[in-house]
Amino acid sequence: MSFAPIHDRAARRKGGETAMAALMPRIAGPGELEARGDDRYLSEMTRCVFKAGFVWRVIENKWSDFEAAFQGFVPLYWQQVPPEVLEELAKDERIVRNMQKIRTVPENARMIVDAAREHGSFGAFLSQWPSDDQAGLLLWLKRHGSRLGGASAQYFLRRVGWDGFILSPDVVTVLEREGLVDASPGSKKRLIQAQEAFNRWHRETGLPYSHLSRIVSFSIDS
């Protein structure tokens, strides 16, 4: 289907084209992903992991304490951190003491270090992955990382400025209503169907994927 009716419906709901444009997510500029330190990628991954299934505001309010407790999230340190350090963190009242999520830090640090070893930095790795294959990147993060399946990886990419969609409940509702996805929730086939829809809309409009995603979410009463 054409994206125009979705766009027009979203603009009406948000008070017009100009008002809606002001609500679009920010996309990293040229060289910005590469310039970001690998520690910042591990930090943002961990933030999204801890937010999953939890009150986001609590994690945001405590994030400076997370930064202190995890000593700035340096991947080279955390990839080989001794088990006793994780055990101490599980008692640290500055953070949310969820051992399963704490254990994701060394696992995701190893993923970042491995990618940086091959590409120069994790940001360089992300920058060379095209938005028309976000499905492939999400599957890569799920396979090589820890607790980066589903929405956590999508929000991580959005937070660092990588141009991609988020399959929020509103976006999924529109995709289903328009008959663009019909595979089982959480399946690889459903993710690929969503990618195909966004690729088609991108070719039609020339808009960034993250803007398309936000506009779709605005087009539905929730």
From TrEMBL:
<dbReference type="InterPro" id="IPR011257">
    <property type="entry name" value="DNA_glycosylase"/>
</dbReference>
<dbReference type="GO" id="GO:0008725">
    <property type="term" value="F:DNA-3-methyladenine glycosylase activity"/>
</dbReference>
<protein>
    <submittedName>
        <fullName>Putative 3-methyladenine DNA glycosylase</fullName>
    </submittedName>
</protein>
<dbReference type="Pfam" id="PF03352">
    <property type="entry name" value="Adenine_glyco"/>
</dbReference>
<dbReference type="GO" id="GO:0006284">
    <property type="term" value="P:base-excision repair"/>
</dbReference>
<dbReference type="InterPro" id="IPR052891">
    <property type="entry name" value="DNA-3mA_glycosylase"/>
</dbReference>
<dbReference type="InterPro" id="IPR005019">
    <property type="entry name" value="Adenine_glyco"/>
</dbReference>
